[in-house]
Design a protein that fits this description.
By secondary structure, this protein is mainly β. The protein contains 1 helix and 9 strands. The chain starts with 8 loop residues before the first helix and ends in a 5-residue tail after the last strand. The N terminus is likely disordered.
């Protein structure tokens, strides 16, 4: 009869991999309402909100800009600030003309080779950050929300 020796090495490697993911991996984002996104419990963590993007009445542009995510279309309901890079990539704010209107808003989306505008419902996953005492969503991933039914 032939004896087979089983090495414990694969089991050790698997256990270390599980521990590394459990200890060092980033937690899954929490789905929250726009109104609850800036709750203290979410600061420093990633959240997912669903809503509509809007340009503020005054916008300061550099390599980034802060726009708003509203819970309802037309800039109604609760809102939360969202910092975006300006560029042509996914989850980036497209360049704006020097004189812009609400309909000038275009943001690249991750799940389409298109942009989102003020009429598109989007899903934003971002880190809840504090910028000079103001809650702002940062490092976003923006996708079109799934079509209803």
């Amino acid at each position: 009869m032939r004896s087979v020796r089983v090495s414990g090495l694969p089991l050790v490697v698997a256990a270390v991999a599980v521990l590394a993911v459990g200890c060092g991996g980033e937690a899954a984002p929490v789905e929250v309402s726009v109104a609850d996104a800036c709750s203290q419990e979410h600061h420093g963590h990633r959240v997912t909100v669903e809503g509509f993007l809007r340009l503020p009445s005054k916008l300061e542009l550099s390599d980034t800009a802060v726009i708003e995510v509203f819970s309802l279309m037309q800039g109604d309901g609760d809102s939360v600030p969202l910092r975006l890079k300006i560029g042509d990539g996914p989850s980036e704010l497209r360049d704006l003309p020097s004189t812009y209107t609400a309909s000038s808003l275009r943001v690249g989306v991750e799940n389409a080779k298109q942009t989102a505008s003020i009429i598109d419902r989007v899903v934003v996953t971002a880190k809840v950050s504090d910028e000079d005492g103001v809650c702002v969503l940062t490092s976003p991933r923006i996708e079109r929300a799934p079509e209803d039914g």
